[in-house]
């Protein structure tokens, strides 16, 4: 992705609007609070439609104290969504907190928008075809081992929490020459999580995770960069073997667990969790 555009700029989770968790930023950096209906930009989900997301979020509003009356608009790319925010097409954008902090550190026009009572969170998984039972088992095993031996925690520090202001996530070397190839779809458009640099070099947390998975499975990894909206069809058509990342509501979320799960696809065990926030222009 074009980092200059990004510097100017979820649930997915991003399912994220539904899946959005509120409020991660500094008190002095808030764009404001709302209790009225606003249009919110979110990245296209794997399967759930705008209508379905708005229906679910309206129900959540009615059952909680948020009372935001969400109206979500889908975008296929983060850069396009941020342009929509800049132009006023949407008033806020739904993002994971790690992504929001990355952007705010590079654009002083942006700030977290606080919404009272909003507390939603996503788990990040991989998606595979239902028929690929052995691949899912292998992925689950690798993720489980990475949790147990501290590799995932190390990656979180290196690629997310310990990044200095203005610093880019480190580049990642994909495993090669091992024989079998694993084609993995990434958006490359959600730094510091999912990132492909302008020269095609993979970087960021998700690519580090998939590179490590490839090493542990003794497989080459080929990254296939795909817009958010095209991920499910790429997996179903066997253009790719795995979709990286897929967000699912964490724990006992009021968002249905299967809201974004296409038929004939299965999710791996989660490898990361992040809360969802809204970002707006500073007032």
Automatic annotation (TrEMBL):
Domain Solute-binding protein family 3/N-terminal: 182-244
InterPro entries according to UniProt: Solute-binding_3/MltF_N
Keyword vocabulary terms for this entry: Signal
Signal peptide (residue range): 1-21
Any Pfam family: SBP_bac_3
Protein name, UniProt field: Solute-binding protein family 3/N-terminal domain-containing protein
Organism, as annotated: Anaerovibrio lipolyticus
